[in-house]
Design brief:
The complex is a heterodimer. Chain A is mostly helical. Chain A is built from one helix and no strands. Chain A is rod-shaped. Classes of the chains: A mainly alpha, B mainly alpha.
Chain lengths: 43, 324
């Protein structure tokens, strides 16, 4: 495996965190829609 | 005797040993069909069949499920024939009929190809040719794309190859309707997205095996840390995707609530894999838990969809039909 230097590592880490935040936001959004819809169905 | 002569002799002996008529038992033929894999394939095919709108004669439905089972088993048998060299190197697979020497390779490939062709022809003639074509595509994808092309070449093997295991709900649906629709395509996408975290969890605690056999699974090539991160990323894509059928009224509230609850547990398991990885023992325990749960997860998710459908809670299940 090729080793990354410090700035490359930092950049990769930032990108990973950004991706994680976007996906976590997506999960939160879909859960919010689902819970609202379930509440509407049951209400 | 010279080294070259010795090598040639051992190669000839190995070849002869391969072709020696072993005396396989019925249990060896059953093992060749990968019954555990088959059970999940059959269940997902059955789910596709049960949620599809329309009527199907119970006998035709039984034939369709039988063909899905046989097609899956045949693909497994051909896979075992092709991979007998690396199966012999891995603890998990070295007791299979071929590496253990209980069955001749020729018997296995003949058995697999015969069943593969028979399943497609039977499906086409008795059920319909849309289902037959989809079954043939699933078999071909598993054998040629996954087994022959990808498995030994790229750590993305199970990502792309996972498509083969995602076909059964579409086949089950097509068996009833003769066409496809948005819901079976979504089920395909869900199983496709479920496959990487499922297999990478297994590969995390079997990476020694894969490394010995030279199979470039992600933990072997990129290391456990990158694998744990990929598991989490795919899980974060999988769970919202499972909520889409309910959001689009293709599934009802039983499915919606189940997908939300089951998905939350799946995410918790994936997060545990990500953060427990460096702890002593945690490196193995959390992937084992995720692997076991991922199987239960898919069973329960599909079961919830079937319950919804049987209760008539999916108002637009047949939406977006696609004629093939």
């Amino acid at each position: 495996m090729a080793r990354l230097d410090k700035p490359q590592n930092k950049n990769l880490r930032r990108r990973n965190i950004a991706l994680l935040v976007v996906l976590a936001g997506l999960v939160a959004l879909f859960y919010a829609v689902t819970i609202v819809k379930i509440a509407g169905n049951l209400g | 005797m010279s080294d070259a002569a010795l090598q040639m002799r051992s190669a000839v002996e190995a070849d002869a040993a391969e072709h020696t008529a072993a005396s396989p038992r019925v249990s060896d033929f059953v093992a060749l069909l990968k019954p555990r894999v088959m059970s999940l394939v059959v269940f997902s095919g059955l789910a596709g069949l049960l949620v599809a709108p329309g009527q199907i004669h119970p006998l035709i439905a039984a034939v369709a499920i039988f063909c899905i089972a046989i097609g899956s088993g045949a693909s497994g048998a051909i896979n075992m024939w092709y991979e007998r060299d690396i199966d012999a190197l891995m603890a998990r697979t070295k007791t299979r009929p071929l590496p253990a020497g209980r069955m001749a390779p020729g018997t296995a490939i003949a058995f697999g190809v015969t069943l593969a062709v028979a399943a497609v022809v039977l499906m086409g003639l008795i059920v319909n040719w849309t289902a037959g074509l989809l079954l043939a595509m699933a078999e071909a994808f598993y054998v040629f794309i996954y087994t022959v092309w990808l498995k030994r070449r790229t750590p993305q093997n199970i990502v792309i190859g996972g498509a083969a295991g995602a076909f059964p709900p579409m086949i089950g649906w097509a068996a009833v309707t003769g066409e496809l629709a948005l819901l079976p395509l979504l089920l395909f996408a869900i199983i496709f997205m479920w496959t990487p975290p499922h297999f990478w969890a297994l590969a995390l605690y079997r990476s020694g095996d894969y490394a010995r056999a030279g199979v470039p699974m992600l933990p072997v090539v990129a290391g456990p840390k990158a694998t744990r991160r990929q598991i989490l990323l795919y899980s974060l894509l999988l769970v919202p995707l499972t909520l889409v059928p309910y959001g689009l009224d293709l599934a009802g509230v039983v499915y919606g609530a189940s997908a939300a609850a089951l998905g939350a547990v799946f995410l918790a398991c994936a997060v545990a894999v990500q953060f427990d990885g460096d702890k002593s023992n945690g490196g193995e325990r959390s992937p084992r838990r995720l692997f076991a749960y991922s199987i239960l997860y898919l069973f329960l998710l599909l079961a919830a969809l079937v319950v919804d459908s049987l209760l008539g809670l999916a108002p637009a299940a047949a939406a977006w039909s696609l004629h093939l």
